[in-house]
Specification:
2 domains; globular; six-stranded mixed beta sheet; four-stranded mixed beta sheet; 10 strands; 247 residues; 2-enoyl-CoA Hydratase, Chain A, domain 1; 11 helices; alpha/beta
Amino acid sequence: MLDLELDNGLAVLTIDRPHARNAIALDTMDQLEKALDAAAGAQALVIRGAGDKAFVSGGDLKELSALRTIEEATAMAKRMRSICDQLASFPAPVIAALNGHAFGGGAEVAVAADIRVAASDVKIAFNQATLEIMPAWGGAERLAALVGKSRALLLAGSGKTLDAAEAERIGLVDVVLPRASFEEGWRSLATSLAHQPAAEIKRVINGVSPDEAIASFARLWVADAHWQAAERLMNRNAKPQAAGGAE
């Protein structure tokens, strides 16, 4: 099951498969594709797992073990790679809220997001090598972009498991929150990014020409939202006039 919540510009996509520790099956891929289409227009997108045990525990081995040919494996990998690419290219900020452990394909989903927020007790591992396979959903390349090629090879090649603090130290995770305040914390962070300037900043960071960056700024400058915010700020900063006054 997959749930999509839309609230005032914030889309929250929750993978809810407790019997499989939120692992991704072929039907989950169908639902992810539909949910991403339904989230179009959101100012920020959060992807998370249900519960507090697993973010995504990878691919659903019980189901995916039926894929035994090169052609079947290729088709599955291409499809889920495409979904992770859609996450990465979503026009607004994407936050992976690591409510639980992210292993294998789950770690690949996490690095497809722009920002990773983790509860302090979670672990993350690109541990496909322990099954004598490798990341196939774009995770190896995205991991290298985050932590460097040599460290990515070390982590994915060995399948090493990191705790949240270590993942934050090397830049794999951006924010670590106490478990007690995790739900409130990731939602507050996501809400703070659910506005048009953050989407434009993401576009510029991902690579546009200087002229395109300036054009983005100019569009925001002339928008009503900018002038309304500027007026609020000027009114707040205006000093109250003294009572009376000299004649």
